[in-house]
Design goal:
By secondary structure, this protein is mainly alpha-helical. It is built from four helices and no strands.
Length: 127
């Protein structure tokens, strides 16, 4: 196994969640494609720089887009969360500290509705 590739245990968890292959279509192996996608995101390189051992970058892009659109990655996340939750590895307590919430710089001192500046009287016209 290479550095940024899925382990056998990770692959065994994810394999059943992948969509069934399209009949009559011989394409890139699912594990190879998933390893290429994972490698790209773990390293942060542009997709055209993914090593050739993972197949053509266009095939990886197509597979990624298809799996993202059909909910495959959502199912993978849910399965990983369920496994971690069952093992007690996830603490679901969430707390938001409002001292770190920042407003946009233009949000300070904005006029509120009903607090308009006083109107000046119209200029008098003397003839």
């Amino acid at each position: 196994m290479r550095r940024h590739e899925l382990s056998d245990a990770e692959w065994d968890l994810l394999r059943p969640l992948l969509p069934r292959p399209v009949l009559g279509r011989q394409g890139l192996d699912d594990r190879l494609a998933l390893n290429g996608i994972v490698w790209k995101f773990r390293t942060g390189v542009p997709r055209r720089d993914v090593p050739e051992r993972y197949g053509p970058w266009t095939s990886l892009r197509t597979r990624f887009r298809r799996w993202a659109a059909d909910g495959t990655f959502d199912r993978m996340l849910q399965a990983a969360q369920a496994k971690a939750d069952a093992a007690g590895d996830i603490d679901w307590l969430v707390s938001v500290d409002s001292t770190i919430v920042r407003a946009h710089q233009h949000a300070a001192g904005a006029r509120k509705e009903g607090t308009r500046a006083t109107k000046r009287p119209p200029p008098s016209h003397r003839s």
